């Protein structure tokens, strides 16, 4: 039976400096929004399927919806259940992920509370990664020279506007509709965007995050931080820089807004 390497629904604060996962290393951080009294609505996990394949997931409970923390934790729970299938032939990782997202969606709709969440899930295989994307959380893959090899598109009006060239990323960060998300787990019309198999090489770095990171730091700044040096150092700098933007944006003259923050960095050793 597969067991999660790390499994964190709604942590108040967790910082993992560096640890091993599927032959690579990772660092992670999750924290409530500065000054927030309620629960962290983000959840994350790293789940092994076998010795060579696994899943990394970040789920961000939808702000303004009841039970966002419950919804994000449910994504993790359903992924774990699906990965622990007792069938003689274990289903493909793709099937595990899709089944878990769909079952979470069904449960949230049946509950009728309005709870919803993003789901940013990345399949890790020996020679490639593949994303399964619902909402405005993010995954991206960058080479050690800073080349962006893959990035998801946010399921939001501003995300599509940036993709089509109507808005710059800087304009999107301060746009009045930046908070709107049109696709979530917990919606009847939910859609899962499945990314291509993207080759991952030695020293490539994968980032998976909630929008607490990407609503405060532009992509180029994130890439510059994560592409070089140790994951421990990159993770700490991401956390400190984002917290500062959340709390001092007006003084700094930069975009920034308080939010729950979760991100993971995974670096392949293959």
Write the layout of secondary structure elements.
Layout: E1 4-9, E2 13-21, E3 24-31, E4 42-48, E5 54-60, H1 68-83, H2 93-111, E6 119-124, E7 128-134, E8 138-142, E9 148-151, H3 157-164, H4 169-173, E10 193-194, E11 198-199, E12 205-209, H5 211-214, H6 219-226, H7 231-252, E13 261-267
Antiparallel strand pairs: 1-4, 2-3, 3-13, 4-5, 5-6, 6-7, 7-10, 7-11, 8-9, 8-12, 12-13
Helix pairs in contact: 1-2
Characteristic terms for this protein:
alpha+beta; Phosphatase 2c, domain 1; globular
Describe the structure.
The protein has one domain (4-267): PPM-type phosphatase domain (Phosphatase 2c, domain 1, 4-Layer Sandwich), CATH 3.60.40. A hairpin with a 5-residue loop joins strand 4 (42-48) and strand 5. The protein has helices spanning 68-83, 93-111, 157-164, 169-173, 211-214, 219-226, 231-252; strands at residues 4-9, 13-21, 24-31, 42-48, 54-60, 119-124, 128-134, 138-142, 148-151, 193-194, 198-199, 205-209, 261-267. The two termini are 25 Å apart. Strands 1, 4, 5, 6, 7, 10 and 11 form a seven-stranded antiparallel sheet that branches. The mean pLDDT is 91. It has 270 residues and is of the alpha+beta class. It is built from seven helices and 13 strands.
């Amino acid at each position: 039976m597969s067991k999660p390497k790390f499994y964190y629904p709604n942590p108040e604060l967790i910082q993992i400096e560096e640890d091993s996962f599927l032959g690579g290393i990772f660092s992670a951080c999750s924290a409530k929004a500065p000054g927030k009294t309620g629960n962290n609505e983000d959840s994350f996990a790293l789940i092994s399927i076998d010795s060579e394949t696994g899943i990394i997931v970040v789920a961000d409970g939808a702000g303004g919806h009841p039970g966002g923390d419950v919804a994000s934790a449910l994504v993790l729970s359903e992924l774990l259940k699906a990965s622990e299938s007792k069938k003689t032939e274990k289903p493909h990782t793709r099937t595990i992920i899709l089944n878990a997202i769909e079952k979470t969606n069904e449960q949230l709709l049946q509950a009728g509370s309005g709870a919803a969440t993003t789901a940013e899930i990345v399949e890790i295989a020996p020679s490639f990664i593949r994303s399964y994307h619902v909402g405005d959380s993010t995954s991206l893959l960058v080479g050690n020279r800073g080349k962006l090899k893959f990035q998801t598109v946010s399921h939001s009006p501003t995300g599509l506007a940036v993709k089509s060239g109507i808005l710059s990323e800087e304009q999107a960060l301060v746009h009045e509709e930046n908070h709107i998300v049109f696709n979530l787990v917990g919606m009847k019309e939910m859609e899962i965007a499945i990314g291509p198999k993207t080759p991952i090489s030695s020293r490539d770095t994968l980032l998976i995050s909630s929008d607490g990171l990407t609503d405060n730091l532009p992509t180029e700044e994130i890439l510059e931080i994560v592409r070089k040096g140790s994951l421990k150092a990159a993770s700490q700098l991401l956390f400190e820089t984002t917290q500062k933007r959340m709390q001092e944006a007006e003084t700094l003259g930069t975009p920034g807004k308080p939010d729950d923050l979760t991100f993971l960095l995974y670096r392949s050793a293959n």
